[in-house]
Fold this protein.
Amino acid sequence: MVFDYIEGGADDEITLRRNNARYRERALLWSVLEDVSEIDTSATILGHRVRAPIIIAPTASSRLFNPRAGEPAVARAAHHHGLIYSASTLASTSIETLARETPGPKLFQIYMWKDRGLVREIMQRAGEAGFTGIILTVDTPVAGNRERDPRNRFSIPPKINPHTASQALARPGYLWDLASTPPVRAANFTHISGGVGSIVDFIDKQFDRSVAWRDLAWMRDLWTGSFAVKGVGAPDDAEACVAAGADAVWISNHGGRQLDTAAATIDLLEPIVDRVSGRAEIIVDGGVRRGSDIAKAIALGAKAVAIGRPYLWGLAADGENGVSRALEILTSELRRTMALLGKPRLADLTSRIVLR
């Protein structure tokens, strides 16, 4: 049930597969006899100098995948590799705890709740804890239809029933970790209500279908740090984000977990870059599985890619060491790809090297 929660997507999972496939359908042109004795993958993203153009995307309830390690393990691994960490508003570890785990650059993801006071409060907490940027997710007016979860009788926090119990009993190590650690819950909202279930129910009810551009502008006015809008898929919307004061446009279809049959994010990259390049940084997620995928995204105009599933698989497998290993694989593959392309710097990666 936990694997399916990470791995799965919405409806028929067409967008989930398409995100990956469209990277594979783009070929690379390489140059020869270039000096690639030194490869530089460093970049400046939202004012932070990082070792590679990779952002740890915000993912909810990471302790679900590794009850003992959770978000702190991810934050530490990101700092070790010199990358930007993003915390989810629905994290199973509090803002303040995560801030203590990593002195490195960190962003905080948020939704626009119906209770604007709650939005203001959590943004203030993020700023006081040392988070330098806010990520507003805008592609979730309602939850996507992720059919694997009801098939598994799965919920967050996990509820005991014959179906989930049979799966958990088949993994006694995981069951012990889950039972012997604090409950997996929305740690940033424990002050709202005493019960774990009631907190999650409250948060579900807080999704606001009436959110509009005026609300984005209101949030931008509240926040003095960097500001990214995540879940953008159309050039006109990207333009509106920039007009509202966004520092970064984050192209995302929620990893194929919201609108199925939506366009692959790599296909959305070029038209959005054409519209807003030079006025906002472009971040893209969805389908990044190899260093060559990162090179393609950068060549097509992205400032950085964001990853979710790759580091969650590492977290589930081996905690902080697993996350670190996943990041090591991606960064080493990027360096190798750049060497084989004959492009020693990220600036050398241009659209001329990518063929459909």
Notes: The first helix runs from residue 2 to 7. The CA atoms of residues 315 and 353 lie 34 Å apart. The longest strand covers residues 226-232. The mean pLDDT is 92.
